[in-house]
Design goal:
279 residues, ABC transporter involved in vitamin B12 uptake, BtuC, globular
């Protein structure tokens, strides 16, 4: 598989997965949760770097999978902690997110500084946790992204109405028989899985945009569930393919920012168009 084909598959699968969840994330006002989970993973990378200091055999480019495993564990634990705190009303969502995010990021930077102090070098590939490494994606990651996409689409297809009802009004949805607790943690896990895969490709800084812009744009056009989700997925897919192709032609332009800017441009056009129609 060529690098272009792998990039197209990864970008398309990730964008579709994010877009399918985007309508629900925007409806539930979970944009900041995505940001918090994305950055919390940096603490996991920091833990891996500290382990590399203690056990030198775990250091080096050939062990670059270890920080990524740390990112997965920290992102998952942070997501479950945020979900539990918000679900049981112990703190508002923005408070819980802020607490876990800043603690994880602070630990990650302390670990990075310790690594640099003792090794006299920066941890291998640490920038990729913020900015991604899209040009290095391979067939394995393309398959992983595709499987994630299929899992998200299947979940939305089977439970879309329950998720939509929960996102708009959790209390009313629970009173009407929706399994609110199950839906709550299911959404948390799906968002986390999407962010973990996405941050490897486009970085933790930009992956949240893929979870917000498609849904926000589509919901500005229609509040009907099928139309909103379908429009969100279609928009994200077109933006992903266009972003990959444009970035291959314009050497200084990286894929992640290209996709995000296309999505933002469409959002602006839709927003301005609605304002003009109302006036």
């Amino acid at each position: 598989m060529t690098s272009l084909a792998a990039a197209l598959i990864c970008a398309s699968a990730l964008s579709v997965a994010c877009a399918a969840l985007s309508v629900f994330v925007v409806s539930r006002r979970w944009a900041f949760i995505g940001e918090g989970i994305a950055h919390s993973g940096f603490g996991g990378a920091g833990t891996a770097w500290m382990l590399a200091l203690i056990f030198p055999a775990l250091d080096g480019p050939e062990m670059q999978w270890l920080p990524y495993c740390g990112v997965i564990v920290f992102a998952l634990l942070s997501a479950l902690a945020i979900g539990a705190v918000t679900r049981h009303g112990m703190a508002e969502s923005d408070t819980a997110i802020g607490i876990f995010m800043v603690a994880s990021v602070a630990w990650g930077f302390i670990a990075r500084e310790a690594y640099m102090f003792y090794r006299k070098a920066q941890p291998h590939g640490w920038q990729s946790f913020f900015f991604g490494e899209f040009r290095d994606v391979d067939m394995t990651f393309a398959i992983t992204s595709t499987l994630l996409c299929l899992a998200v689409i299947a979940t939305v297809w089977l439970m879309g109405k329950e998720i939509f009802a929960y996102c708009f009004d959790p209390e009313t949805a629970e009173a009407s028989g929706v399994r609110a607790g199950f839906v709550h943690y299911l959404m948390i896990l799906l968002v986390t899985a999407t962010i973990v895969i996405g941050s490897r490709i486009v970085g933790s800084i930009l992956v949240t945009a893929l979870l917000v812009l498609p849904g926000a744009t589509s919901l500005a056009i229609s509040r009907r569930l099928s139309v909103a989700v379908g429009g969100s997925v279609a928009l994200a897919l077109v933006a992903a393919i266009a972003g990959v192709l444009i970035s291959r032609q314009v050497q200084f332009l990286t894929t992640g920012p290209a996709i995000v800017l296309i999505l933002f441009a469409v959002f602006v056009v839709v927003f301005v168009g609605k304002r003009v129609r109302r006036s």
